[in-house]
Amino acid sequence: MTSLITRRGLLLLPLVLLAGCDLVVLNPSGDIAAQQGQLIVVSTLLMLLIIVPVIALTIFFAWRYRQSNTTAKYDPDWDHSTQLELVIWGAPLLIIIVLGAITWISTHTLDPYRPLDRLDADRPISAAAQPITIEVVALDWKWLFIYPEQGIATVNELATPIDVPVRFKITASTVMNSFYIPALAGQIYAMPGMQTQLNAVINKEGVYDGFSANFSGDGFSHMRFKYHGMEVADFDKWVKKVKAESNSLDRTSYTALEAPSEREPVRYYGKVAPDLYGAILNRCVAEGTVCMDKMMHDDANRMKIDAAAKNFLKDGNVSRVAQIDAAVCTSSTNLVKSNDARAY
């Protein structure tokens, strides 16, 4: 009797351990995360249509054709069944087709770059609605959030009003990272010198966890922040509170903030240099550094000039001389600056 109770207890132990899990992915507070959660459930159920019968039949065959069961039919010459082949190949094929269709549709519908067209399943977004823009920078090992429209910035604290679309522009300062708020939407990579995007909306008030989902060094495990979903009036009060701070975030203070640190406390900046995020993205925060977009623009001009010169020499078209001269005149200043910067 005791051994039976012990065995039953061991079988129930995984359920007891799982009772402490926070299944926020399947019970989120944002519409995008809710749609992603539904996709996980539907995909899992479709796959279980194959997994459960296969496991059940495996157990059934092992039991029925065990060595001690002499009543089971033994047919060593059997080699083919059209009906069985149709079931074995037809059922998985149909499920793969359905999964493929669902994946294709959801991939486009839940594209993080795609502007939102609804607040939730029952409320579309009006054409006049304007999203809030938040610029996210993954640092070592903390998160910087810049609100360009409000002119403020925070470290390790994020806030947005509920039922208002939010457009995140995401980059990193040094190594690749991942921006993830399970209650809001799926994770999005943050990479230095590149910008990714996420369009999302939070539908319920609350305080949610955000963190890095990509290992990035010693302080990775503490690279967490709190995300506050607020009523519009409360969000406005929060913005005023941050604006009241005397700290200002410019290139100098950003350089100090960028230094690696762990367990960074929440910080508010009442003012932000308007060109700071662009400098971070294009890796030209330090004075005298040529920005990546400027460098690429100069390279594109140089390629145009080279192509024009080659065509002129190839075709012998004298009328192209004026075009080449014009291109050289308009681009020479940029080219000289770019060459000087690279030489430096």
UniProtKB/TrEMBL annotation:
Keyword terms, alphabetized: Cell membrane, Electron transport, Lipoprotein, Membrane, Oxidoreductase, Palmitate, Respiratory chain, Signal, Transmembrane, Transmembrane helix, Transport
Membrane topology: Multi-pass membrane protein
Location in the cell: Cell membrane; Periplasm
GO molecular function terms attached to this record: copper ion binding; cytochrome bo3 ubiquinol oxidase activity; cytochrome-c oxidase activity; oxidoreductase activity, acting on diphenols and related substances as donors, oxygen as acceptor
One BP term from GO: ATP synthesis coupled electron transport
PROSITE patterns from the UniProt entry: COX2_CUA, COX2_TM, PROKAR_LIPOPROTEIN
Domain Cytochrome oxidase subunit II copper A binding residues, every copy: 129-241
CDD domains per record: CuRO_UO_II
Entry's transmembrane regions: 39-63, 84-105
Cellular component terms (Gene Ontology): periplasmic space; plasma membrane
Major subcellular location class: membrane
Sequence ranges assigned to domain Cytochrome oxidase subunit II transmembrane region profile in this UniProt record: 17-114
NCBIfam families: CyoA
Family membership noted in the UniProt record: Belongs to the cytochrome c oxidase subunit 2 family.
Name of the molecule in the record: Ubiquinol oxidase subunit 2
